[in-house]
């Protein structure tokens, strides 16, 4: 009996050592190049933004400038600071001399600016709800409200020395909330976070890990 | 009776002793001859050049091995040799069109390639 067990173990060892799975998984790091490489500059100056539509509940320009200054300081290599400017109109982004005049002697400095508008709306819809616990299959109709916030951000990276627009990108993000007491200021941070991730992917490049299968035969 | 039991035991241990080296020599011989497996072992240790060398050998000895072509494609992808990777994936898929692992590898590879090409186009347009 004991001998039989020993032989069985030997056979198991034999098959375990020689037999194998048909595939192996390996990690592959996939990098995506930066569309506009921000790290080639020494300094980033975040200026005020041109406000197309102001929010009623908070200072939109101040929040945008503060948010992106902080995020850039945390995530980007160049030195980051902010500067107050005033916009005569939206066409100013095309005016090289205007941007050149902000920091005339600067080198390897990029100005980060743009336009922004923030919209808030309440959408109503008729939804079916369960009536009572003891009437599980009966349904009732009710009107439900959702608060929606939309941010439109159009960023410009401008060469401080030449006043030339080096890179521009527009983002539109919308987020809906079930909570009727949701504030615009709170929603702004959710939307800004989404925009930030997309913007930084484009200016820093991204690396992520994917799986690949190696096949044995 | 005692002599008989001892004889049985002796035969068993003798067989076991003969069997064990056979097992190990078979496995090691098999491993050495199998370039694909060798390449996988190298790849798992991060030795992708060695892996490419092994899988190229495997392709030379058996050009119809979809596994060798697939593995080569993965290695070329790691080495950022996109053109070669694409060629090898396509060959592997031609040889084994229903292999789910090759399909999954190729789909992910193509998604990345398209995203890269899109980025390059955007960059050109910016300029």
Describe this structure in words.
The complex is a heterodimer of chains A (217) and B (127). By secondary structure, chain A is an alpha/beta fold. Chain A is built from 4 helices and 7 strands, in the order αββαβαβββαβ. The longest helix of chain A is centred in the last third of the chain and has 21 residues, at 184-204. The model of chain A has no long low-confidence stretch (mean pLDDT 84). Chain B is mainly α and 127 residues long. Helices cover 87% and strands 0% of the residues of chain B. Chain B has helices spanning 2-33, 35-44, 48-61, 66-78, 82-95, 100-126. In chain B, helix 2 (35-44) runs antiparallel to helix 3 and helix 2 (35-44) runs parallel beside helix 4 (66-78). Chain B is elongated. At the A-B interface, helix 1, strand 1 and strand 7 of A face helix 1, helix 2, helix 4 and helix 6 of B.
Give a short summary of the structure:
With 217 residues, chain A is an alpha/beta fold. Chain A is built from 4 helices and 7 strands, in the order αββαβαβββαβ. In chain B, helix 2 runs parallel beside helix 4.
């Amino acid at each position: 009996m004991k001998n039989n067990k020993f032989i069985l173990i030997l056979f198991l060892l034999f098959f375990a050592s020689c037999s194998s799975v048909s595939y192996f998984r390996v990690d592959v790091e996939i990098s995506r190049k930066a569309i506009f490489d921000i790290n080639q500059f020494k300094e980033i100056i975040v200026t005020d933004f041109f406000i197309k539509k102001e929010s009623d509940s908070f200072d939109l320009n101040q929040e945008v400038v503060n948010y992106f200054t902080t995020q850039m300081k945390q995530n980007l290599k160049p030195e980051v600071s902010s500067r107050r400017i005033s916009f005569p109109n939206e066409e100013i982004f095309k005016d090289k001399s205007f941007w050149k005049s902000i920091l005339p002697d600067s080198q390897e400095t990029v100005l980060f600016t743009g336009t922004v508008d923030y919209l808030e709306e309440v959408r109503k819809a008729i939804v079916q709800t369960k009536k009572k616990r003891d009437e599980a299959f009966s349904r009732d109709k009710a009107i439900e409200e959702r608060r929606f916030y939309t941010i439109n951000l159009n960023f410009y990276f401008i060469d401080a020395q030449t006043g030339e627009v080096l890179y521009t990108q527009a983002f539109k993000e919308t987020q809906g909330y079930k909570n009727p007491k949701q504030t615009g200021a709170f929603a702004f941070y959710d939307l800004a976070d989404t925009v930030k991730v997309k913007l930084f992917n484009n200016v820093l490049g991204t690396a992520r890990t994917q799986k690949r299968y190696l096949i044995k035969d | 009776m005692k002599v008989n039991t001892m004889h049985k035991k002796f035969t068993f241990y003798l067989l076991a002793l003969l069997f064990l080296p056979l097992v190990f020599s078979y496995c090691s011989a098999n491993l050495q001859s199998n370039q694909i497996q060798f390449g996988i072992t190298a790849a798992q240790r991060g030795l992708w050049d060695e892996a490419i060398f092994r899988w190229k050998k495997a392709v030379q000895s058996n050009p119809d091995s979809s596994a060798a072509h697939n593995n080569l494609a993965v290695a070329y992808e790691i080495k950022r040799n996109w053109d070669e990777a694409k060629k090898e994936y396509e060959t592997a898929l031609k040889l084994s069109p229903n292999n789910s692992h090759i399909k999954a590898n190729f789909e992910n590879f193509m998604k990345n390639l398209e995203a890269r090409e899109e980025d390059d186009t955007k960059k050109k347009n910016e300029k």
